[in-house]
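Limitations

Structures in this collection are predictions, not experimental determinations, and the ligand pose is part of the prediction. Treat each record accordingly. The example that follows, with acetyl coenzyme *A as the small molecule, is included so readers can see exactly what is and is not provided: the inputs are given verbatim, and the output is the predicted complex.
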Amino acid sequence: MNGIKIRGTGRSVPGKLVTNQDLERIVDTSGEWIASRTGIQTRRHCAGEETFSSITAEAARRALEDAGVPPDQIGACIVATVTPETLVPSAACGLQAALGLPEDIPCFDLNAACTGFLFALHTMECLLNASPRKFGLVVGAENLSRVVNWADRGTCILFGDGAGAAVVECREGWPSVSAVLGCHGNGELLRLPGPETGEPSYISMEGTKVFKFAVEAVPWCVNQVLQKTGRTVEDVDFFVFHQANARIIDLAVRKCRIPPEKYYKNIAEYGNTSAASIPLVLSELREQGKIGPGSRLLAVGFGGGLTWGGCLIEFA
Ligand code: ACO
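Predicted complex:
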């Protein structure tokens, strides 16, 4: 099987900034508690003309531009999300129309919660091996502010909205992303009910238990990917982690002995944006020149499902 590499990245976050102080007026919390327990200072919320669809299309457009790949070269489009604007049509079908992607390609949404972008990268690698077109569009996008319970201080302070995208290319001889993906079906710890359940469509979470799961899952995924690829921490240029809580990242990097110049946190600015969080990091690192052609990245995600995953991916 041929592997994929990233050709270009893009992102879009809504302009509406919500600070910890804004949340102090909504729930019984303090900016200091939020900052010290999570690392979050602000998050962005969709409002007015900035919608899930508009930020998703903007992120995808920027990734295509960055990659220098015209829409007619795209062989598949996947949007990882748990908050699409409509279930039918999918967000990916919306992108097909908005960007003028070819009609004879698979476009679909994928739900693996916060691990969605990595499930989508692996799926894209499989699809492009069977496609005559060699470029794929992988997007992670969320409008989580629409599905938080504004009376629950344990969750409403955590989540934000945003979209990130990557254009990938598949070529003979390139290494696979060597994905390590998994799930443990659990409807108790982290839940976003659909309409059939009769429950309110809000996120609920047993935060401390999810935290414990995450601090085990992240180092485990790092080690599994390193083992699978025969690489070491030294061989990896940058580690890209799902941004759920700064303390989860701090504990994981300590356990894996990852030096500070090899990882990045933007959770202070955006909060937890679920499937968008990994591609948002990728796009910022790319813009800041911290990663680029030839860089080798190890990405790890975890979240609702429960799901987890890791990939080793290079920049073309
Ligand atoms: N402000 C002030 N106090 C609060 C707040 C708040 N916003 N939220 C909770 N507290 C209180 C609790 O009520 C509790 O008080 P008590 O001891 O009197 O009962 C106390 O703070 C401690 O609460 P914990 O829940 O134990 O706090 P913890 O340190 O675990 O932090 C947090 C909570 C930030 C949610 C943490 O557990 C976490 O980050 N969990 C992981 C989140 C995550 O990774 N999610 C996965 C991805 S999400 C997805 O897939 C969609």
